[in-house]
Amino acid sequence: MIHFDSVTKEYPRRGAALRDVDFRVRKGEFVFLTGHSGSGKSTTLRLLHFADRPTRGEIRVAGFSSSRTTERDIWKVRRRVGIVFQDFRLLPGRTAQENVAFALEVTGTPRDTITPRAQRLLSQVGLGAKAGAMVNELSGGEQQRVAIARALANQPEVLLADEPTGNLDERATRGIVDIFRELNALGMAVVMATHDLDLVRSDSRTRVLELDQGELVYDSAAADDDDAPGRTGTMPQPGAERGSVGAAASMEGEESEELLDHEGAAD
Amino acid sequence: MYALREAVAAFRRAPVLTGLAAGMVGLALFVLGLFGLVTHNLQTTLDAVEERVEVVAYLREGTTDGEVDAALDELRALPEVRTVIYVTKTQALENARAELPEFEEVFSDLDVNPLPASLEIELEEGFRNEETVTVVSEHAAAYPFVEDVAYGREWVDKLFSLRRIAGVAAGVLGAAFAVVAALIIGTALRIAIFARREEIHVMRLVGAKDGFIRRPFVIEGAMAGALGALVAVVLTWATWRAVSTLILEIDWIPVGWIGVGLAIGVVFGMLASSLAVRRHLREVT
């Protein structure tokens, strides 16, 4: 579903945001992408959404290759790969339903099916009763649900989430992650960037990829099974990465958790 | 359908901006319209003058009827010549009296008719040009009994030059105004694009095609261009009415030209907006 093969991303002024990163995500897999601010989480998601192209290496998402997909065809990628952001990016001055309907309309959904489909998508994220509410009147958690419903408009195979709970309280966060898990249970691959360690540790079965200064420093799948095909990443030595999931997994240290919990909201 | 609806909505949302863009297209095309008016009327005048382009061969005293008949036959046989009229000395005097009534007394008091007989050579349509006039006049001048040959070549030359100058001036001024109009339409569209940047961003995010995103803006540009062209037509018409009423009667420009003007306005608006939105889309990921 996702192939991230030896990917390096360099920016002219910033330098390398990712260095030789390798990982694969299978169909229907749920992955937490974690790391400090500036570790390369958002860059990874931008690359997966083809908002940027790698400087070196190759990315394949939902059958689209970064080296072969032209700018003209990016719309095809976007319909197979949904994305949500920390700041929701909804259209203000419109209702929840209008926001979802907009996505359906601009991607060519037949007019007579737009309203019922928008309503169904909002119901899917538990917001059916608030379809007529203006988005700026909704809570943060509710706005993120609208954004998720919008991202689902084209029934994507992959859902990317860039710090989707960064602005939400614990209860709203749980609600959003529950929606992701439900979507994942239906077969959708989910890649969620987050710096919320409590959340990451809340389910030990969920795969964790950790980035640090543009390098993939931990892959829980590789840690579980170093020989697993298509998996890369190495288990950091205990204490080697203060504040990292890998280190925390070994150290069980309070200090490292605190460090991560006080990170900036996004990359 | 979506594109048209959005374009109309954008027009309603920012009428001043759209009006400004349309106004500039209108002024640019108005300049072209004015020159169209001048060019068309020059053309009409030129055609009328060309119609009267003829070669007159003045005959020497004592030219015999036989010589005249032979020349008439020979000249009439030329493919460029429509007809040749022989004007006798007496007819020349009568014509002069009729055409110049203020000199009637002078002509009446004459003991001797000073006017020469002549051959008026009318040219076929399509041959009333400098080249043919020269060939035919040289042919006529070759007769020994022809004293002089006259034709209105200078006038034809001057009118041709005038038309060329008007054409160049229209092109240069029209192009200058067109550039200004393009800049204003581009700016107006960029402001419109900026006002809708969030929508454009979301459209890109969810997988709308670039053509789909561009279409409302291109239609908006076409509408501004068409509106501008209409403004230009109205301004040109008002000018024509004013000139015709107050100064001199002139012809209105052909309907086909108005069609071309409208088409230019529409295409122009579409191009300007298309470039503006294309540039913006390159910056949006």
Describe this structure in words.
The complex is a heterodimer of chains A (267) and B (285). Chain A has 267 residues and is of the alpha/beta class. Chain A has a single domain (2-261), classed as P-loop containing nucleotide triphosphate hydrolases (Rossmann fold, 3-Layer(aba) Sandwich). Chain A has helices at residues 41-48, 74-80, 96-106, 111-124, 140-151, 170-185, 197-201, 220-224, 245-251, 254-261; strands spanning 2-11, 15-25, 30-35, 56-61, 64-65, 81-85, 158-162, 189-194, 207-212, 215-219. In chain A, α5 runs parallel beside α6 (170-185). By secondary structure, chain B is α+β, with helices and mostly antiparallel strands. Chain B has two domains: 2-48 and 157-283, no CATH class; 54-151, Alpha-Beta Plaits. Chain B contains ten helices and four strands; from the N terminus they run ααβαβααβαβαααα. Chain B has helices spanning 2-13, 15-51, 65-76, 89-99, 104-108, 130-141, 153-195, 197-206, 210-246, 255-283, and strands at 54-59, 81-87, 118-123, 146-150. In chain B, strands 2-3-1-4 form a four-stranded antiparallel β-sheet. In chain B, α1 crosses α9 (210-246), α7 (153-195) packs across α9 and α7 (153-195) packs parallel to α10. At the A-B interface, α2 and α3 of A face α8 and α9 of B.
Count, helices of chain A: 10
* Number of individual domains of chain A: 1
How many angstroms separate the termini of chain A? 24 Å
Shape designation of chain B? elongated
Order of helices and strands of chain A: EEEHEEHEHHHEHEHEEHHH
